[in-house]
């Protein structure tokens, strides 16, 4: 982790600017609490609101934009709290915010009407902070360097978006191997279901030690407690925790905000 994160000091920036953090949402209140708890740790010098794409009442994207506009915000920095650029939900959110004219997936969420400028930030992807978190998750459950490691992510049934997932996951695996010295690290998506083939390959390497499964999901919820276990019923494994809770994600959000504020200042200097 770069030293800039531990000594991060955000500049005040333009008071007309604001931050909109967008997460997917869940019917599980504990999932939502984890996101809200994370965002309360974020230090932002400008107004900040947390919204959800769906499933959380009175916390919609439109309501988030409205709250910022009521504070005089005319320039909104959007931080999508999603694991990967391969999520089609990102294209859905961009459509809702008017960034894209077309949506790659059906949506019943109405488009937001706003005159504010929208600055779009990338999702987490293979950011060094995520790799550091995964290393820590490994250390919490791994008992032997001989244990094979499998990262499990959502994935996509659309070829273009699946390619993005695979590119990001391959990069994370490379970084983990390099930083840990582990040889047998792989990844699998749930959509399409790559688990059977990836598990067979890793079991051929070591059938004695339990496999370490790391879920690449923002927070503990339906996928970590139901979907993944249901597909691993015949597998001997230990499971690490989801990405949250971890302070490095709040620092990642601060990093996104700082980058956009710095960019705005530089543009003002040029003009």
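Q: What amino acid sequence fits the structure above?
A:
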């Amino acid at each position: 982790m770069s030293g800039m994160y531990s000594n991060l000091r955000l500049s005040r920036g333009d008071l007309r600017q604001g931050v909109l953090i967008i997460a997917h949402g869940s019917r599980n209140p504990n999932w939502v609490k984890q996101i809200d708890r994370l965002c309360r740790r974020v230090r932002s010098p400008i107004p900040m609101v947390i919204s959800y794409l769906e499933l959380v009442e009175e916390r919609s994207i439109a309501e988030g934009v409205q709250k910022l506009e009521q504070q005089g915000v005319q320039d909104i920095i959007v931080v999508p709290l999603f694991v990967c650029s391969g999520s089609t939900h990102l294209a859905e959110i961009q459509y809702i915010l008017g960034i894209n004219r077309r949506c790659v997936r059906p949506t019943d969420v109405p488009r937001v009407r706003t005159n504010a400028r929208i600055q779009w930030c990338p999702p987490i992807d293979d950011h060094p902070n995520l790799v550091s978190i995964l290393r820590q998750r490994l250390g919490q459950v791994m008992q032997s360097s001989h244990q094979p490691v499998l990262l499990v992510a959502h994935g996509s049934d659309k070829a273009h978006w699946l390619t993005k997932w695979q590119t990001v996951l391959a990069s994370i695996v490379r970084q983990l191997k390099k930083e840990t010295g582990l040889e047998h690290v792989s990844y699998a998506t749930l959509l399409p279901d790559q688990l059977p083939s990836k598990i067979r390959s890793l079991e051929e390497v070591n059938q004695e030690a339990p496999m370490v499964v790391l879920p690449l999901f923002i927070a503990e919820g339906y996928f970590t407690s139901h979907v993944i276990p249901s597909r691993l019923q015949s597998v001997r494994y230990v499971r690490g925790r989801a990405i949250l809770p971890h302070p490095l994600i709040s620092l990642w959000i601060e990093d996104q905000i700082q980058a956009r504020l710095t960019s705005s200042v530089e543009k003002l200097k040029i003009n």
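Q: And what stands out in the fold?
A: Residues 247-270 form the longest helix (24 residues).
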